[in-house]
């Protein structure tokens, strides 16, 4: 049977016959969101880069080489490994987009490096990334799950953890700099990456849920146990990685809170409940504001209790809503 | 308001796609709630009382398409739109400036307050705040005799 599978010829994809509307919804989202690093004026950050201490610069370069490694894995191994498991041709097409955007992300860090840093500093950081045991451990844990022959749904779990959890020990730093009005153009670029990874984690998590719901209860429970145990393993590595990077500038505990917050969101993408309780997952508001700048932050239930006044609704038509 | 009873929270109407994040949030509230169907072929829920709409955001990077089509269809009916008293929106902060954008759009369009925002399926804190907020809102609505 395997031989027959090997010579399987794909059928021409018909985007006008969808088995799952989510495929087209996500395809449209990803293609509209397409971007390249050249669109961001990184060179405006050169004066700001010069205000960082040598230690802060080294930390930043190391963080970005760590992120480059994860994007490289997702580009060359992770997203391609999900393609044979696709249950619709459109899902396979979406995964090709995801794979390519990971290459764009990996490429972007080199744009940051070539704009802000010396070749020697960057070469040193890449060497550091190859030798750092924690970074290598997380890469290994994920790559083992991606290996051929593994359970397709376990691969999706690992993929969601990479997209929605493992990046965040790194993403924290540009958000932190941005909250202090440093490297703000670099932060703009990182926010484009964060936006993409959010769609990737959402979509792969959605496909995981669709696959899982077809299984008997016992197998569903086994997958959930697998997910939580993999998360614990990765969390342990992430804590060590975080301490090694951030102890020097005293931010490790704050980064860990950010890890908890993102681990909970990764679990939600998989359809599971949060693991870390609110008291250890409440992220510094300055970091949250850096993640979603210009999104107004006052609402009725969190506010100081201004009196409720109902207005008069305006007439509404379909066309009015697309803004 | 109903005869002699204590103030009731407004009804809840919500939309949730097959990712079901919003459905999980609504489930956590433990309050009666009517779902706007995913399929345009299915009937919209009947509206008899003031309600709060809970809606996820689907905006692309330019902010287009934030409000799900089915929610637009629901609100396009004047009789249903007339009873909305507030909107709660979900989203993901990772989408930056368009985080929970559907809430701002619906609040502006329907001239009601944006009551609350949460991410994905919400946290226990979000659920507790929303429940408390809905109870307060129920009392205020009674005092203004809507």
UniProtKB/TrEMBL annotation, chain A:
Which reaction equations make up its catalytic activity? a 2'-deoxyribonucleoside 5'-diphosphate + [thioredoxin]-disulfide + H2O = a ribonucleoside 5'-diphosphate + [thioredoxin]-dithiol
Q: Which residues form a coiled coil?
A: none
How is its cofactor bound, per UniProt? Binds 2 iron ions per subunit.
What Enzyme Commission number(s) does the record list for this chain?
Answer: 1.17.4.1
Enzyme active site: 109
Q: Which UniProt keywords apply?
A: Deoxyribonucleotide synthesis, Iron, Metal-binding, Oxidoreductase
Binding site residues for Fe cation 1: 71, 102, 105
Names of required cofactors: Fe cation
**Class of this enzyme:** oxidoreductase
Q: Which family does it belong to?
A: Belongs to the ribonucleoside diphosphate reductase small chain family.
Subunit composition and interactions: Tetramer of two alpha and two beta subunits.
Task: Please explain the role this protein plays, according to its UniProt record.
Answer: Provides the precursors necessary for DNA synthesis. Catalyzes the biosynthesis of deoxyribonucleotides from the corresponding ribonucleotides.
For this entry, the protein name equals Ribonucleoside-diphosphate reductase subunit beta
Provide the species name.
Celeribacter neptunius
UniProtKB/TrEMBL annotation, chain B:
HAMAP family xref list:
NrdI (MF_00128)
- Describe the function of this protein: Probably involved in ribonucleotide reductase function.
Give the species this sequence originates from: Celeribacter neptunius
Q: What is an example of a Pfam family matching this protein?
A: Flavodoxin_NdrI
In terms of domain of life, where is this protein from? Bacteria
User: SUPFAM superfamilies this protein is in?
Assistant: Flavoproteins (SSF52218)
Q: Kindly list the GO molecular function terms attached to this UniProt entry.
A: FMN binding
In terms of NCBIfam families, this protein maps to: nrdI (TIGR00333)
Taxonomic lineage of this organism?
Answer: Bacteria, Pseudomonadati, Pseudomonadota, Alphaproteobacteria, Rhodobacterales
UniProt similarity note: Belongs to the NrdI family.
Which protein, by its recorded name, is this?
Protein NrdI
Stored InterPro entries: Flavoprotein-like_sf, RNR_Ib_NrdI_bac, RNR_NrdI
């Amino acid at each position: 049977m395997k031989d027959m599978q090997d010579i399987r010829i794909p059928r021409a994809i018909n985007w006008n016959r969808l088995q799952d509307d989510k495929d087209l919804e996500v395809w449209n989202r990803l293609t509209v969101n397409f971007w390249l690093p050249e669109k961001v004026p990184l060179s405006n950050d050169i004066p700001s880069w010069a205000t960082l201490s040598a230690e802060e610069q080294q930390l930043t370069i190391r963080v970005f080489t760590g992120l480059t490694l994860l994007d490289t894995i997702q580009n060359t191994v992770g997203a391609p490994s999900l393609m044979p498991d696709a249950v619709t041709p459109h899902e396979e097409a979406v995964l090709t987009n995801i794979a390519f955007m990971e290459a764009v992300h990996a490429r972007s860090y080199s744009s940051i490096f070539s704009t802000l840093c010396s070749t020697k500093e960057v070469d040193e950081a890449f060497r550091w990334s190859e030798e750092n045991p924690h970074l290598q451990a997380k890469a290994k844990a994920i790559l083992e799950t991606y290996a051929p022959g593994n359970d397709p749904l376990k691969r999706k779990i690992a993929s969601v953890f990479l997209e929605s959890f493992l990046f965040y020990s790194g993403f924290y730093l540009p958000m932190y700099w941005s909250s202090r009005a440093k490297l703000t153009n670099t932060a703009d670029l990182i926010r484009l990456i964060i936006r993409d990874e959010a769609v990737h984690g959402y979509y792969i998590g959605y496909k995981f849920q669709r696959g899982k719901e077809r299984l008997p209860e016992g197998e569903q429970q086994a997958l959930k146990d697998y997910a939580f145990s993999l998360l614990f393993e990765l969390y342990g590595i992430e804590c060590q990685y975080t301490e090694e990077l951030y102890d020097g500038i005293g931010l490790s505990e704050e980064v860990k809170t950010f890890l908890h917050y993102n681990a909970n969101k990764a679990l939600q993408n998989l359809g599971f409940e949060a693991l870390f309780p609110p008291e250890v997952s409440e992220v510094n508001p300055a970091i949250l504001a850096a993640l979603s700048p210009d999104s107004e932050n006052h609402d009725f239930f969190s506010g100081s209790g201004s009196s409720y006044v109902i207005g008069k609704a305006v007439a509404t038509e379909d066309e009015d809503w697309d803004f | 308001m109903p005869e002699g009873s204590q103030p009731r929270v407004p009804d809840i109407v919500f939309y949730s796609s097959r990712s079901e994040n919003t459905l999980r949030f609504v489930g956590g509230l433990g309050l009666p709630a009517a779902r706007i169907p995913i399929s345009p072929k299915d009937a919209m829920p009947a509206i008899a009382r003031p309600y709060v709409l809970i809606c996820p955001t689907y905006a692309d990077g330019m902010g287009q398409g934030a409000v799900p089509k089915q929610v637009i269809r629901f609100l396009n009916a004047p009789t249903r739109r007339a009873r909305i008293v507030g909107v709660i929106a979900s989203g993901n902060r990772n989408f930056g400036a368009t985080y929970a954008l559907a809430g701002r759009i619906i609040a502006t369009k329907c001239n009601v307050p944006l009551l609350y925002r949460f991410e994905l399926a919400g946290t226990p804190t979000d659920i507790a705040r929303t429940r408390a907020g809905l109870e307060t809102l129920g009392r205020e609505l009674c005092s203004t005799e809507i």
